[in-house]
Design brief:
This protein has nine helices and eight strands. With 331 residues, it is an alpha+beta fold. Strand 4 (74-81) and strand 5 form a beta hairpin. It comes from Blautia ammoniilytica.
C-alpha cells in the first residue's frame, strides 16, 4: 500500500517539475530570445498605387513568423508556425463548370382567342344622371335653408365689476410685480456669491496643480521616464538601414526646404540613405527604395518597466494622483 502511495506522489512531483520547467523555459525564451523584424519598400515614378512593400516579424529562429505584403494596391498577410500557415489568404481553385447542352427553343402554339358572347350590361343614360344630380342639389338647398332659419340667441350680459374690486385687483398686481422684482434681485446676488465661490475654488485647484507639477518628485520622475524611454527607443530602432531616394518639385525652393528637413534626420539613419534631389524638374516626383531590420529583447522591456514602476518618486506621484480628491486640493 505504501509503495503505491509513494508511486502516486512521485508521479505528481515529476509532473509538477516538468510543468515548472516548461514554464521557466517559455519565460526565458520570451525574455532572452529576440523578436526580429525586417521591412522593405520601393516606389517608382507615378502614383502610389504602384508602390510595393513587405514586412516580416519572426521569433524563435523563424519558428513563429508573420508576413505582410503590399503590392498593386492589395494587402496580403500570413502567420506561420513551424512552416505551417495558421491563417492567410489562400487562392481558391476555380471549379470547371460542365458544358451545358444546347437546348432548341420550341415555339408554343398560340391558343385561339374566344369571342365574348356575354352581353354587356346596359349603361345609364345622361338624362337619368342629370335627374339624380338635381335631386341631390335640391335636398342640400333645403338643409341649408332650414339651418339658416335658426335664430341666434343674444349673449348673456356680463356682470359689471364694482370700483372697489377693481382697485383691489390693481393693488394686488402691483404687489405681485414688486415681489418678482425683489426675487430677481435676490437670485442675482446669490449667483454673484456662487460665482465668487467657484472662482476661489478654481484658483485653489490651479495652485494645487502648479505645486504638483513643480515638485521635486515630479521633476525627478520626469527625468527618469525620459531617460528610460529614450533608451527603449534606441533599442527598438532598426540596427541596419540602407536605401536611396530621389525627389523633385516644380519649385526649386520647395525642393531645398525638403532637403533641409531630411538633413535633420541624418543622426537617426547615420547617413545610410542616399538622397538625390532634382532642382531642375518640370513636375514633382518621388522614387526610391529602403530596407531596414532590427530586433527587440523582452528583458529590455521588462527592465524598463521595473525601473519605472518601482521608483519611489513615481510611487509618490501615483499616490498623490489617486488621493487628490481626499486631499481636497490642498485645503
Amino acid at each position: 500500500m505504501l509503495h503505491i502511495l509513494w508511486a502516486i506522489i512521485k508521479f505528481i512531483l515529476i509532473l509538477a517539475g516538468v510543468l515548472i520547467g516548461l514554464a521557466l523555459a517559455v519565460i526565458l525564451l520570451i525574455l532572452f530570445c529576440p523578436v526580429r523584424y525586417r521591412m522593405w519598400g520601393s516606389k517608382d515614378r507615378g502614383n502610389w498605387e504602384h508602390a510595393r512593400g513587405t514586412a516580416r516579424v519572426s521569433w524563435l529562429l523563424g519558428l513563429v513568423s508573420l508576413r505582410i505584403c503590399y503590392q498593386d494596391g492589395k494587402e496580403k498577410h500570413s502567420l506561420k508556425l513551424a512552416g505551417i500557415s495558421l491563417f492567410g489568404k489562400k487562392k481558391k481553385r476555380r471549379k470547371k463548370k460542365p458544358e451545358t447542352d444546347q437546348v432548341q427553343s420550341v415555339t408554343a402554339p398560340k391558343k385561339p382567342v374566344s369571342k365574348q358572347t356575354d352581353e354587356m350590361p346596359s349603361m345609364p343614360t345622361q338624362t337619368e344622371e342629370k335627374l339624380t344630380v338635381s335631386m341631390h342639389t335640391d335636398s342640400e338647398q333645403t338643409d341649408t335653408a332650414s339651418g339658416n332659419r335658426k335664430v341666434k340667441e343674444p349673449p348673456a350680459p356680463k356682470p359689471e365689476k364694482s370700483q372697489s374690486s377693481q382697485r383691489k385687483g390693481f393693488f394686488l398686481g402691483i404687489r405681485a410685480k414688486l415681489k418678482t422684482v425683489l426675487q430677481r434681485i435676490r437670485t442675482f446676488f446669490k449667483k454673484l456669491k456662487n460665482i465668487r465661490q467657484t472662482f476661489a475654488h478654481i484658483m485653489k485647484k490651479a495652485k494645487w496643480w502648479m505645486g504638483f507639477f513643480r515638485s521635486e518628485e515630479m521633476k525627478e520622475a520626469f527625468g527618469l521616464i525620459k531617460e528610460q524611454c529614450t533608451g527603449l527607443l534606441k533599442h527598438i530602432f532598426p540596427t541596419k538601414i540602407s536605401g536611396n531616394a530621389a525627389f523633385g518639385c516644380e519649385d526649386p525652393a520647395v525642393t531645398g526646404m525638403i532637403l533641409a528637413v531630411l538633413g535633420m534626420s541624418i543622426p537617426l539613419h547615420k547617413n545610410c540613405i542616399q538622397v538625390s534631389p532634382a532642382f531642375e524638374n518640370e513636375e514633382s516626383f518621388l522614387e526610391g527604395e529602403i530596407n531596414m531590420k532590427g530586433r527587440i529583447y523582452g528583458i529590455v522591456l521588462l527592465r524598463t518597466g521595473i525601473r519605472i514602476y518601482f521608483n519611489k518618486n513615481i510611487k509618490h506621484i501615483i499616490n498623490q494622483w489617486k488621493h487628490k480628491e481626499d486631499l481636497n486640493y490642498g485645503k
